[in-house]
Amino acid sequence: MAEVVQRHLEDMLLEFEQAKRIGLFTEAEIKKIVRTRRRHEYKIIRRTKEKECYLDYIKYETHLLKLVQLRREKLKLGRIYKKNEIDLAIKRRIERLFRSACHRFKKDVNLWLTFIEFLKKQYDYSTASSIFTTALHTHGNKYWLWIMAAKFEFETMVSPSSARSLFQRALRIKPNEKKLWLEYFKFELLYVELIQKRQLVLDRTKQEIENNEDDAILQGKIVEIVFHNAQTTIENDPIFICSFVKILYEFSQFSFVESLVNQIYSVLKDKYSSNVLAQSLIAQRPLINERKMIDEATKKEQDVTFMIAILEQQVRENYEQQLNNSIVDKNELWNLYLDFCVQRLRQASDSNKTEHISICDRIFSLASEQISLTSEHYLEWVSIVDHNRAKVIIKKATDHYPNDASLWNKRLSLLIEESVDCKTIKKEFKLACGNSDVKKSSLIWNTIIDYAQENDHKWTEELFEQSQMESFDLSVTLQLKSKYLQWVNQNKSIKQVRQLFDKLSCRIPASLSFYMDYIKIEQSLSNIDHKRIKTAFEQAIIYFGKTSADLWLAYLDYSKQHRSLDFITISRIHSRALHILESDELKRFNTECALKNLT
What we know:
Layout: H1 2-10, H2 13-21, H3 27-44, H4 51-75, H5 87-104, H6 109-121, H7 125-138, H8 143-156, H9 160-173, H10 178-201, H11 206-211, H12 221-233, H13 238-248, H14 257-271, H15 276-283, H16 290-299, H17 305-325, H18 330-347, H19 353-370, H20 375-384, H21 387-400, H22 405-417, H23 422-432, H24 436-439, H25 442-455, H26 457-467, H27 474-491, H28 494-504, H29 512-523, H30 530-544, H31 549-561, H32 567-580, H33 583-596
């Protein structure tokens, strides 16, 4: 072991001599570098190898290389002077360390990527290319690594053939990976663009370019083949097929783009004539190029609002035409149409908001006459119209879905916003609770209790008491337990708070927030009852001792603040936590204890 380390240090002699001779490092600094490198060398030749040891050594050498470069500039030594003996030697050492680490820890893909990133920064692109190839032997199942390698070959190495080879190899391994097909498709388009740019650089005449149109690449034949292979391999996915159109519009300067777009939509129309999603995508075709239109208009400082409005109208006409003629499920197509309208409303500018709201209201109304709207769509509809119109819609919705708690909650909220009298609200809540599913909803109970707290003190207590009945739904009981305690604390005496705690702590389900809120209430008093606090903690531990590290940490915090408790008592609480807590919470408990220095 020692002989290997000594040999490695002796190999560094020339590097040290030259660094000292040109004044990069003093003798004391060189001795320190030797000591540090010796320590790192011993770590990496241990029998049991650790990745952190390699990374620490690499980090040290990288910082040393940066220091050398900074001192070169400061001493005005130039970038080349003795570079092979010093800078290059450090780079080779870092590369050796990376190779050794990657060989021993092959499965760590981040290690490979760090190595490649280092090589890129050193402009050692040929080595980076070979490392990509080696990494892919181990991580060939990671499609994104194939894409990264292919992009590197094309963009950095300017080797389209190598990039194409990588894409094709990747697709043989993972033929059903959509992202690979889309990136390969984009690459072939970029290659066409590269050839056209080369023609311009070579200053070829227009006639020569026209005579070269038989070339399959320039005519987009390869691009077309990639698309057909993709849609044959990955079937029944119209969104995937439509993704090719979005990529094509990024290259709208090519003459073959429009014909290929037409082919893609023909595939959608013919192959997926009974697919609702495909028909929806066909309807949205006028807006497929919207993002590019907006970007170009922004550059030219033009307003495209009117043009976008025309395209949106075309999309709506397409949807309505398909709803009249299409053989697909009308319900699903209507739902997609409504989703489109809501999406456009959300994207609309403030100046167009009113018009979009009017359009959405009209289309929702038309849809409700022809199909059964979902509860989600009713809520969307209510959210976009004015208050009076919303009241009419929500009544229709609750009549259609009498057991939907979210709709009843919205109906109650609209009445509350209208500031109607408490009697009307009570009547409406009673009507809602006539449906068992609604009565079990914590959503509607929270809404009505929030209202009652502000308007009717007596009714609030009645509601809380009703929610805590043993025959009541457990989810509502659990949600409102802590809320009840806090309300009593705000409106009544501590004696009544304690009575409520004693009553509810015996009832299931147990609530951790209920116990913690009660403990905080007791701790906030000027005359603290430590016995009651301890009892509350112990009761909470019965239910949540295994699953809540926060409970034990709060218990320890309280014990430390309560000076009458000795160190032995605190240690016993800590020891109990270690024995009771489950694995994940135990780890978190130990970490928090270390941070707080509770142990």
